[in-house]
Every structure is written in C-alpha cells, then in structure tokens.
Amino acid sequence: MEQVFSGQVLVETSARYEALTIEDGAVLTAPAGKFVCMTVNGVGCDPKPGRYVGDIALTLADSYPMAPHGLMRINGRGRDFQDALVVDTTAGQVVEAQCVPELVQGGTVTGEKTEGVYIASSAESFNGLVIHGDGAYTVKDSVMELDGFSANDFLGVGSAVAAIDKANVTIDGCEFNVNGVTRCAVHVGGDSRVTVKNTKIENISPASDWLGDFSWGCGFTGTNRLCQLTDNGRVVYDNCDLKTNGWGILSIDGTDQYNEMIVKNSRLELTGPRAHGYGAFCIGGNHVQFDNCDVKVNGYPLMLRGMADKGRAEILGSRLQSRRFGVLAMGDTHSVLRIEDSRIETEKSSLVFKGSATDIQIQNSKLVPGNGVIMQLMDNDEGGMTARNFKVPVGEADVKLTDRDLTVAGEDDIRITLTDCDLTGDFLNSTTNIRACKRSDHGGFGKFHDTVIGSMAKADIIEHDENQEEKDDGEVKKGGLPVGMKDLECPKNMGVTLVNSKVIGVISSALQCYREGLTEITEANRLELSNITQTPAPTVNNGVVVSLDEKSLWTVTGTSYLTSLTIARGAAVAAPHGKALTMTVDGKETAPAPGTYIGEIVLTVA
Asked: What pLDDT is stored for residue 254 in this prediction?
C-alpha cells in the first residue's frame, strides 16, 4: 500500500515504505532537536514533493548541536547538524541516536574506525561524519558522495568529515565528492588534529548567480572552497588529489592561535570557466606549507595575508602553475614567505604584493612570468569586504613626501633575498601615496545565506574608515581578529638582495596603469584587480634598494631607477653582451664599481 503525505506532517517515528507520494505543498517536520532523513534505496535526499518507489526510509534522528566556532563565535551562531554518522571519541562510541544507519552502505563503523563504507546523499546541508571528543579516530577506504547547496561552510555544514574538539583524526585512502555551493569536503575545527592521506577530494559545484560576492575584492569567482581549517586545528594533507572549480582549495578562516596546514606530495587543481581563486590561503598568524606539490590554479596558487607578525608561508620543492599570477599578498603584516627548490610558472607576474610588509626568501628556484615581471609591487586596489568598488586614480601623480627614507628597506617594506638563483625577469615597485583603495564606496556585502552573518561580524571588526586609519594599538578581539591593524596602504621601498645569484632584467621604481578606459572596478569586472602594466620611472616615494654579494651578477636589460645600490667586491652590474651600461648618481656619471651608492641612481643600457 502506498503512503501519501499532504499538508504539514509531523514525523514522530522512523518508518519504511515501498512507495511514497509527497503531495505538492506537503512539509515533513520533526520534533524539536530532531530531524527527518529520507533515503531511497540507500541514497539520501530532501523529502520534496514527488512519487518515490523502492526501499524508502524516513529516519527520525537527533540533531547534533554544533556549537559556534570559527568566525561564527563572533556572534554566537551555532547550528543543528544533520549527519549520517556522529562519533564521540572521548567515549569511544558511535552516537547512534544522531546517526542514520540507512545511509551507511557496507563496511564497518565502530567507536574507533569507519572503514570501507559508502555514504551518498543529495540532501542540502547534510553531513557525512562528525567526529568530536578528545580521542583518536580513523576513517579508512571510504567513499562519500554529497551533492547540493550548503548553508554555512564557516561551520562545516555539508562536509564529508568535520572534526572538532580535541579529536585526533586520520583519513586514509578515501574519496570525497562533495559537489555543491559553499560546501567544504573536510572541516578541521576546534583543537582537532587531522591527517588526510592517500585521499581524493573533489567539489565540482554547479553554476550559480552567486560567485563569491562578498569576496569579490580579492578577485574570487566560483561557489565553494574545498577544505577548511579553523579555530586551533592542525591539518596535514599527504599524497592527496584535491580538485575544485570554485574560489579556493585549502582555506583558513577564523583561527585563534598559530595553526599549521602542511600539504605534501599532493596535487591541487582549481580550474573551470567560472573558477578564479587560490590553491591555499595563508591568512592570520598561521603556517602554510607546500612540500613537493603540484599546484595548478586559475588565479593564485598561494595567497598570503599574515597578521600579527606571525604568518609563515613556504613553497618547498614544488611546482606551481597559474593562468594568472603566482603568489598574491594583500594586507600582509610582516609574514615570511620562503620559496625553495621550486618552480613557479605563470601567464602574468610571478609575485604580486600590495598593501603588505613581507620578508621574501627565494632560494634555488625558478620563477617564469609570462609578462616578464617577477615582482609586481603595487598600490593596493582592495577596498575591503564591504566595498562596492575600487575607483581607479586615472591621471593622478604621486607627490613626494619629505620625511621618507628611500635608501633602506625596513620591516614595513618589501624585502626580497635571492639565494643561489638564476632568474630572468623584472622587479618593479609602483607604490605611491595616492591610497586610492580608501576611496571605495561601502555598504554592499553580498546576498548569500548565513555565511554572510559571520563575515559581516568580521568586517565590522576589521574594517576602518579614513578617520580611523592611524590606529595601531595591536588590540585583538575574541576569535583572533585584529582591530586597527597597522596602516600599510602607504608607499613601499623594495629591497632586493642577491646572494650567489644572477638576475637578467630591470630592477626599478615604476609607474602603474590599468587597462585604457578603465575607471572603476566592481564585482562585475573583478578580474581587473591587480591587472596592471608597470613602466620603469623615476622614483617619487617608491624607493628601490639593491645589494649584490661577491658572487652575484645583475645584467641590466633596460633603464632602472634606484635609490641605493651596494656592489660587493667580486660582484658585477653589467649590460647584456654587445651593449654598454651607464650609471648616474644624482645626475653624475659614475662607474658601477664595488661600493655603496645612495641618491637618484639611473642605470641605462645602449
């Protein structure tokens, strides 16, 4: 006999059917603290109007009350989770009242391990496995396929595995296909420690009219980030395949302390016509490391926005490819970026830094920029998460500041050390005191579900207007979000130090311009962000400080404007073969002999 539901139906017990019709307008509800999970032939789905035939189960289970964490702690926002499996590692047991056994196909599930199971569901905001407590747990040789929209990826809603509390979790030999808008596959939160190895993780999300609208100012498009680290968690990805068409692969958001995300022996890919974003985002006082990885990304293989002088990003023995830029840093406060034994190949500039103060250490690596620019040091064009636009300062000229020391690259500048490198490309500094990013109109913040609530709270804390820009008290709000961060939207000096290295190219102060006719960058044309052309030009406020040790050579390929040049005995600054180099210091021709030169230094090649 066929079961028919109409109107509002309160499901008070679990039941099974061979045929079920849910009429138009019918709504299935559960008692407080519970949820109804519908499965058809072992596959979960939302109980929407329609006729269903087969092994149909309506399972009444207890919700898992996920406490506020990550960015949601700012406003105390938690959520009742709906899960296939919930494990309490402290007790070493599966919490049966919060599980849906009809979804767990094959394999075994115990209080210590989930092995060889298959879980599939198209229900929105539905989780595969939540692991909490302070014990160890293993997820092995299991497959989870979850499709559909998810309501809050900040909390890990809709993830295949969410680890919280102090759980110590190992995920080994698994496959997670979690396809949906704002749906993370692996969520590492609380004080958990998670190792993911020999695992394939993928999110190919559907087309949507939402393309990361509250983060458009970073140039993101797409509808998801694949995996997330938050709170005080630590995660290692080892020999994994990570793929998405979204706006991020490995995300960090809402962390408290010095956290780590180690990615080794893995392959990361972010591609697709709607995709533009990052491979990994080192944000906050955290450590992100690529070790022997292949990273292919439409956008930025690595993004850096370290805070509180603690950020640390490393690219070790890895190969990064991008259709746009390589490493992008914005608003970075005194992080260390280390690139060693690696290759970064891009269609545009290798490194793009704006509004940042970063120590960059490059050793025995190849940077191959498609536009010939290795370092694109530029003015910040990000107006913040509440910005509605960036107004391009067309035709404005920088005005010299009388109190700037242009001869030293200090801690609030950009410092690049090249060791054992042989590079061809330009290092250009086009920063000014125009500060156009502070002229953005504000008020829009995106239009998308309750992730916006957490982001709005964050924006309220860290955004500041022109009357507040001088604050530098270092105060940190609950959740690790800095208030009144040091104003870094000022002009920068660029220090380039060569240690046993060779550079063929231009190292110079520069002017920058956007595409001809462009006066405003908005959500609609967000890929114009960072998309500038730089031209070597006399220094105004953008000092360039170059130093060569005794084993280094700079072959100057075009006019370069410097403010300080140190040439050690044994080093050389020269023109390409068959050409001649001329150097002037404050207008006086000077031979580029060993020594230190300070002033208006111009190198020309003829």
From this structure: 87
Which residues are paired to 190 by β-bridges?
none
**How many residues does this entry show for the chain?**
606
Q: Do residues 520 and 441 touch, judged by C-beta distance below 8 A?
A: no
The dihedral of CA 317, 321, 248, 281: what is its sign? positive
Mean pLDDT computed over 208-213: 66
% of the chain with per-residue pLDDT over 90: 83
Q: What are the φ/ψ torsions at residue 594 (nearest 5 degrees)?
A: -55, 140
Q: What is the 3-state secondary structure (H, E, C) of 126-185?
A: EEEEEEECCCEEEEECCEEEEECCCCCCCCCCCCCEEECCCCEEEEECCEEEEECCCCCC
C-alpha to C-alpha distance for 596 and 604, rounded to whole angstroms = 18
Q: Are β-strands 50-62 and 15-22 bridged in parallel, bridged antiparallel, or unpaired?
A: antiparallel
Q: Max alpha carbon distance in the chain (Å)? A: 100
Whole-number Å distance between alpha carbons of 10 and 6: 11
The stretch 405-428 carries a mean pLDDT of 97
Measured between alpha carbons, how far is 522 from 209 in angstroms, rounded to an integer?
A: 16
Q: Which two tokens stand for residue 554?
A: 């700079």
Under DSSP, is residue 572 helix (H, G, I), strand (E, B) or coil? strand
pLDDT of residue 360: 98
In angstroms, rounded to a whole number, what is the distance separating the alpha carbons of residues 606 and 589?
15
22 CA to centre of own chain:
42
**Please, where are the H alpha helices in 515-579?**
none
DSSP bridge partners of 369: 346
Tokens of 566: 């140190």
What is the phi/psi pair of residue 75, to 5°? -120, 15
Beta strands in 46-90 (DSSP E): 50-62, 64-66, 79-88
Residue 458 pLDDT exceeds 70: no
- Name the token pair of 279: 């491979």
- Bridge partners (DSSP) listed for residue 528: none
pLDDT at 211: 59
pLDDT of 168 reads 98
Domain range summary for the chain, segments of one domain joined by +: 3-61, 414-430+492-605
> Could you tell me the pTM of the whole model?
0.93
Task: Take residue 25 and report the two structure tokens written for it.
Answer: 């307008």
Q: Please report the beta strands in 449-589, taking only residues with DSSP state E, as ranges in sequence order.
A: 476-477, 481-482, 494-499, 502-505, 507-513, 520-521, 533-536, 544-548, 553-556, 560-567, 572-574, 581-585, 588-589
Tens digit of pLDDT for each residue in 246-260?
Answer: 999 999 988 887 899
Q: What is the mean pLDDT of residues 233-242?
A: 98
pLDDT tops 70 at residue 238: yes
For residue 463, pLDDT beyond 60: no
Q: For residue 80, what is the DSSP state?
A: E
> What's the mean pLDDT in 157-178?
98
Taking the C-alpha atoms of residue 171 and residue 141, their distance in angstroms, rounded to an integer, is 8
Mean pLDDT of 417-422: 98
Fill in the DSSP letter of residue 25.
T
Written as one letter, the residue type at 418 is L
- Asked if pLDDT for residue 46 goes beyond 60, the answer is yes
